[in-house]
Structures are given as C-alpha cells and as structure tokens.
C-alpha cells in the first residue's frame, strides 16, 4: 500500500511513519521537513502535493496548529489560527486528496479530545476539533468506491505531557497512538471520531 503522512515529521507523525515503513510505501510530509513539503493552509500547495504523489491508498494527517487561550482573550488570534490551520488545513487535505485515493482508500484526520472533555483555555481548539468530527461524519456519507474518512480525537500524548512537565500517568504513549492511526487507515471504520 502507498501512504502519505502529512505531519509525518512531528512527534506522532514520525511514529506513524516508522510503523508503516516496514510494510508500505510511505511519503512523509512536513511544512519544512520530510520527503516532501506542503503548507496545508494553502489549497494550491495541497493540490500541488497530490499532483506530485499521484494515487495513494491512505492519507493520514497529523498537521494543524491549535492555540491555547482564555475565553475572554479579546483578540481573534487563537480562533483564526485554529480555523485556518487545524480545520481548513485538514479540510484542504480531504478535499484535494480524495480524488487521488485508490478504490477502498482512506483519509485519517486529527481532531482533539477537548471537544468531548472540556478543558479551560481550549475554547478555540475544542471548536475546531468538534468541527472536524462533524466533517468526517458527513463526508463519509458521500465518498464512493469504498473510500473512507475518520478523525482521531486525540488526547494529550504521554511524551508531550512529559515534555511539558505535566502529569502523564493517564496519557497514551505515542506508540499506541500511532497504532490507532494505522487501524483507522486500514481497518473498516468509516465516518467516526475515534476517541483516544
Ligand atoms: N501531541 C499531543 O499531545 C496532541 C494532543 C492532541 C492533539 N494533537 C494534535 O495532533 C497533531 C500532531 O501532534 P504532534 O505532537 O505530533 O505535533 P508536532 O510534533 O508539532 O508535529 C506537527 C507536524 O505538522 C507539520 N505541520 C505543521 N503545520 C503545518 C502546515 N501548515 N502545513 C504542513 N505541515 C504542517 C509539521 O511539519 P514540520 O516539522 O516540517 O514543521 C510536523 O510534521 C497536531 O495537529 C496536534 O495539534 C497533539
């Protein structure tokens, strides 16, 4: 199978790439690093990426900025970033990428657990995560040729919590997180926000 991992140079993405590489042809894509580069915020950049890769069996996205900020912050910055990057960036990936999916292929996006488990300071991120969960549910109804789309509703990864000096006792290690991306990409699930 041929897989493209957008955000494949990051913490989670590089583990997804490592787990895929023994069995699949993998293109790791970053904003500044990786086998290829893209800016998911630019529709033309995403289109150009898929023109380069050609047909693929799995599109996996771990890209998209989320910005923490208090609800009463008077600027629009956090909302603008989340909507342009995490939401519309991944919508760009799905919209530009699906014509390049082989029959039975899949798209796996990344949303976020804060839409299900509210946390102070994450209003913008939660807004974006909920939007992506709704998006995949709807798009799944319209995809043809056995193509599928899901979102991983990701909670704080153990290694990220450790880096921040936060309690990581209940967090999921990156190796297990990556496994769920592979399950979503190659299993039967469709139109789901997969809680992790
Ligand atoms: N880690 C966590 O605990 C956690 C929890 C919940 C949700 N998430 C979300 O899950 C995703 C992956 O997390 P992570 O910790 O692996 O992130 P990370 O280490 O910061 O990696 C981000 C990846 O996305 C790429 N990227 C960022 N902006 C991009 C853009 N505009 N266009 C193309 N590529 C772009 C980066 O490329 P370069 O390396 O080239 O810059 C990198 O490969 C993120 O969206 C994050 O918000 C993470």
Chain-wise SSE layout:
Elements lengths: L1 E5 L4 H10 L4 E6 L5 E2 L5 H11 L2 E6 L15 H21 L3 E10 L12 H18 L7 E6 L4 H7 L9 H13 L6 E3 L1
Parallel strand pairs: 1-2, 1-4, 2-3, 4-5, 5-6, 6-7
This protein binds NADP nicotinamide-adenine-dinucleotide phosphate.
The site of NADP nicotinamide-adenine-dinucleotide phosphate has 28 residues, from helix 1 and helix 3.
Number of helical segments with 4 or more residues? 6
Largest β-sheet summary: 7 strands, parallel
CATH homologous superfamily designation? NAD(P)-binding Rossmann-like Domain
What name does the CATH topology carry? Rossmann fold
- The run of helices and strands is EHEEHEHEHEHHE
* Global morphology: globular
How many strands?
Answer: 7
The proportion of residues forming helix, as a percent range, comes to 40-55%
Number of domains: 1
Strand order of the largest sheet: 3-2-1-4-5-6-7
Tell me the name of the CATH class. Answer: Alpha Beta
Low-confidence stretches: none
Q: What CATH architecture would you give? A: 3-Layer(aba) Sandwich
């Amino acid at each position: 199978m041929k897989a493209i991992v957008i955000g494949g140079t990051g913490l989670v993405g590089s583990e997804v790439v490592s787990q895929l590489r023994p069995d699949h042809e993998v293109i790791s894509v970053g904003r500044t690093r990786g086998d290829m580069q893209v800016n998911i915020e630019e529709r033309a950049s995403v289109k150009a990426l898929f023109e380069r890769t050609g047909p693929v069996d799995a599109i996996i996205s771990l890209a998209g900025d989320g910005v923490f900020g208090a609800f009463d912050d008077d600027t629009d910055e956090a909302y603008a970033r989340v909507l342009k990057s995490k939401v519309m960036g991944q919508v760009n990936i799905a919209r530009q990428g699906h014509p390049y999916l082989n029959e039975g292929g899949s798209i796996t996006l990344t949303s976020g657990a804060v839409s299900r488990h509210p946390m102070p300071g994450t209003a913008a991120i939660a807004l974006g995560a909920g939007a992506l969960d709704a998006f995949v549910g709807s798009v799944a109804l319209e995809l043809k040729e056995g193509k599928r789309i899901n979102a991983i509703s990701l909670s704080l990864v153990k290694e990220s919590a450790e880096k921040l000096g936060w309690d990581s006792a209940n967090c999921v290690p990156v190796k297990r997180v990556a496994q769920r991306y592979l399950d979503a990409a190659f299993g039967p699930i469709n139109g789901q926000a997969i809680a992790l």
